[in-house]
Amino acid sequence: MRNLTEKNLTATALERISECGDPRLKEVTTALIRHLHDFAREVRLTPDEWNVAIKFLTEVGHITDDKRQEFILLSDTLGLSALVDLIANEGKSAASTDSSLLGPFYVDGVREMPLGTDIAGETAGERVIVRGIVSSINRKPLAGALIDVWQAAPNGLYDVQDPNQPEKNLRGKFRTDAEGKFNFRSVKPASYPIPFDGPVGKMLRALGRHPYRPAHVHFMISAPHHRTLTTALYIDGDKYLDSDAVFGSRQSLVAGYRSSSEGGSAIDALEFDFILDAEAS
Amino acid sequence: MRNLTEKNLTATALERISECGDPRLKEVTTALIRHLHDFAREVRLTPDEWNVAIKFLTEVGHITDDKRQEFILLSDTLGLSALVDLIANEGKSAASTDSSLLGPFYVDGVREMPLGTDIAGETAGERVIVRGIVSSINRKPLAGALIDVWQAAPNGLYDVQDPNQPEKNLRGKFRTDAEGKFNFRSVKPASYPIPFDGPVGKMLRALGRHPYRPAHVHFMISAPHHRTLTTALYIDGDKYLDSDAVFGSRQSLVAGYRSSSEGGSAIDALEFDFILDAEAS
């Protein structure tokens, strides 16, 4: 029988999973145990600190329910979610539009609407036209591409967080026309804090970080024979562009408002052309 | 504004905590983010796997309550708890008795009992005498050292898990005599599974691991001017000695039963001499 030491404990724990019948689970767990142990050894983690960590994770678990997912918030704020997204999109053509986080507020099953629809309904706020072209990496416009969009209201809340918004407010589904073009109306999005009244908010405060995301509109765009693109447009000039609490914003996805007009009235437009990568073969 | 990539995301996340006012929190979080990101990059963690992890942690959080701590179970089974214990005991004299996990079943406030008391009360099971000497590393016996002991019943359950055991069953507190000696009676402990009907049990099954701990008796021993020793005795011959599900057992803490007698009747004895390190100065 081996006497366990700080040095040989990791090898002992890894031997223990040698019988694991799932090679990928074994690979992931091996790396997890190795990094977890290296972390504890490196910082000389104390029993008191370990207790704080257990208590923190317990609080994260207890505040999590059907409406609120604090573990995702934790993953987001530690940069893990953005990293998993970047890894998943490795190997995509450099010519295609960058991806960005799906986030926790996507809702499936929004009905398709005619181009030009105002997805903001009765929501107060400055109107904006959102428009652009969807094409493939060879710049061929994609007719009939499906565009799922969603965003927060100017109060910083999504419909699912806000009892004062009707269901599916600020959500829409559109199809590009024969020239690959789309357009719809909405309100200008605002920067907003992620939920910060729980343990993750406490963690951000202790770390000297703010909980804000820069203003953005989410897009999920799909077309036959193309890789589905989950991304977002970030509004130029937003003061949180460079410090997004969840590491979603990126330069290539920043778009500014341009003065435009519609039926004789001035209205700002947000324009962006999306380029879908070919389906992975 | 920086375009986030798989390579620069970690540096970006670390810059974000540069304003943290607590140097130790900053140090620990820096190492945590670095190892978490290295882990994800190394295994090329997929969005589906990330989802499984979020769901798993959510289940661990939801089964955790005042009576059950699944996060501690997770830490125990990944070897983290044992590692933190080993790190905390670094620098202890090699002559002193090794430590072992406190575990989740310690209860404070057990009353002191006369030496020789049977802590098993009405519990069915084969009786055993537990005895030994407590000394300091210079082998000087320690009179009046306080010994807190606790163990599971032969059914594998501690009093706090088992409605059929009276409160504080199989728990005792003793003081060594003028020669540093202690002795008490109990029942022979049995190996038992950690709670395996939750997500951690599911994890162990998927990894091809069993949930058993070898039979043991817990000890917490304190004396003035000495480092408090939290440890356990593991019973020689137990089939789980070399595969303790929580990595607590170690060769130096294994003790065998010896034939003994008491008032003319044969009874097995479990003997161990504990050596306390001097208090850290």
3D architecture notes:
Two copies of one chain form a homodimer. With 281 residues, chain A is of the alpha/beta class. Chain A has six helices and twelve strands. In chain A, strands 1, 4, 10, 11 and 12 form a five-stranded mixed beta sheet that branches. A five-stranded mixed beta sheet of chain A has the order 3-2-7-8-9, with no helix packed on it. In chain A, strands 5-6 form a two-stranded antiparallel sheet. In chain A, a hairpin with a 2-residue loop joins strand 10 and strand 11. The interface between A and B is large, with 77 and 77 residues.
First-to-last CA distance of chain A = 51 Å
Tell me the count of domains of chain A: 2
CATH topology of the largest domain in chain A: Protocatechuate 3,4-Dioxygenase, subunit A
Helix content of chain A: 10-25%
Oligomer description:
homodimer
| Average of the residue pLDDT scores of chain A | 95
Q: Give unreliable regions of chain A as ranges.
A: none
| Discrete helix count of chain A | 6
Most extensive protein-chain contact, per-chain counts: A-B, 77 and 77 residues
Largest sheet of chain A: 5 strands, mixed
Question: What would CATH call the homologous superfamily of the largest domain in chain A?
Answer: Aromatic compound dioxygenase
The number of distinct β-strands of chain A equals: 12
What overall geometry of chain A do the principal axes of the alpha carbons give?
Answer: globular
**Strand coverage percent of chain A:** 15-25%
For the record, the CATH architecture of the largest domain in chain A stands as Sandwich
What is the level 1 CATH name of the largest domain in chain A? Answer: Mainly Beta
| H/E element sequence of chain A | HHHHHEEEEEHEEEEEEE
What's the gyration radius of chain A in Å? 23 Å
User: What is the SS-derived class of chain A?
Assistant: alpha/beta
